[in-house]
């Protein structure tokens, strides 16, 4: 019998709510109130999320974020900035001591990313794990999709999904972005460059490093099709069975409070 995990499709929600729900799920799992969880979600409005340790000053063009009408939120996980627009965002919440989770962060990435790998294969996309040679080149870029890290998913040598992980209260939270389409012009307008020439050079270089689902399939893939592919991908990749879960009124209130107090709070967003 495969183990049953909860599944939540929370649809499109505000940036603050999205991050608050991931944190709340981590808290509830650490308290033994819920089993491990796979969650799918989207962003309304489209949002630039920055890593927990990432500096905004001199790196992120906050005026451009506002001009585009995008949201801006700081994640509880590390890593670099991601523009969440036409994509499937996923999160995985599971105990560090779960029988299938290796103690090493890198190896835990590999286990969880097996679900993403199977999702791509369900879309007939030949994805593989990235295994960087030696140490990653430190480009100093603020853009997440510039470099694949260990066990992230690559297609034809280009990064096809970006993930970030944190471990708190004995629980792993890994969440990530699986782009269906990428607006490279908008993405690079979110970052501060010394001049337009350097920005354009960075954008062109990015095209050779990142890829989205529509590009590799050569067709327009719907969000529903992507969800179905990755739902069964996580079941197969992690050897689990998913059971739909709906938050109670009390849980919803807790998430909304956390969203308001932390993730919608400028002190949290701009503190670095």
Automatic annotation (TrEMBL):
Keywords on record: Transferase
Pfam family, one: LplA-B_cat
A single GO BP: protein lipoylation
Domain BPL/LPL catalytic: 32-242
InterPro entries given in the database record: aa-tRNA-synth_II/BPL/LPL, BPL_LPL_catalytic, Octanoyltrans_LipM/LipL
CDD domains xrefs: LplA
Gene3D superfamilies: Bira Bifunctional Protein, Domain 2
GO terms assigned for molecular function: catalytic activity, acting on a protein; transferase activity
Keyword Transferase part of the UniProt annotation: yes
PANTHER family the record matches: OCTANOYL-[GCVH]:PROTEIN N-OCTANOYLTRANSFERASE, OCTANOYLTRANSFERASE LIPM-RELATED
Protein known as: Octanoyltransferase
Organism this protein belongs to: Pontibacillus marinus BH030004 = DSM 16465
């Amino acid at each position: 019998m495969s183990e049953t995990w909860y599944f939540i499709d929370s649809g499109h929600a505000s940036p603050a709510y999205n991050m608050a729900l991931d944190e709340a799920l981590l808290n509830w799992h650490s308290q033994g109130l819920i089993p491990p969880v796979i969650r799918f979600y989207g962003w309304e409005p489209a949002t630039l999320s920055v890593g927990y340790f990432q500096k905004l000053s001199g790196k992120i063009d906050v005026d451009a974020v506002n001009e585009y009408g995008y949201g801006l939120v700081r994640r509880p996980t590390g890593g670099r900035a991601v523009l969440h627009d036409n994509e499937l965002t996923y999160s995985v919440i599971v105990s560090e001591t779960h029988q299938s989770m290796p103690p090493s962060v890198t190896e835990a990435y590999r286990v969880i990313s097996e679900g993403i790998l199977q999702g791509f294969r369900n879309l007939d996309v030949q994805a593989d794990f990235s295994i960087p040679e030696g140490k990653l080149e430190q480009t100093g870029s603020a853009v997440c999709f510039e470099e694949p890290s260990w066990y992230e998913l690559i297609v034809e040598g280009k990064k096809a999904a970006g993930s970030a992980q944190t471990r708190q209260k004995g629980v792993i939270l890994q969440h990530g972005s699986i782009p269906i389409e990428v607006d490279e012009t908008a993405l690079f307008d979110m970052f501060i460059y010394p001049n337009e020439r350097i920005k354009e050079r960075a954008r062109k270089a990015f095209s050779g490093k990142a890829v989205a689902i529509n590009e590799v399939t050569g067709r327009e893939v719907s969000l529903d099709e992507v969800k179905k592919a990755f739902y069964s991908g996580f079941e197969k990749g992690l050897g689990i069975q998913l059971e739909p879960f709906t938050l109670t009124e009390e849980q919803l209130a807790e998430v909304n409070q956390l969203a308001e107090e932390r993730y919608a709070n400028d002190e949290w967003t701009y503190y670095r």
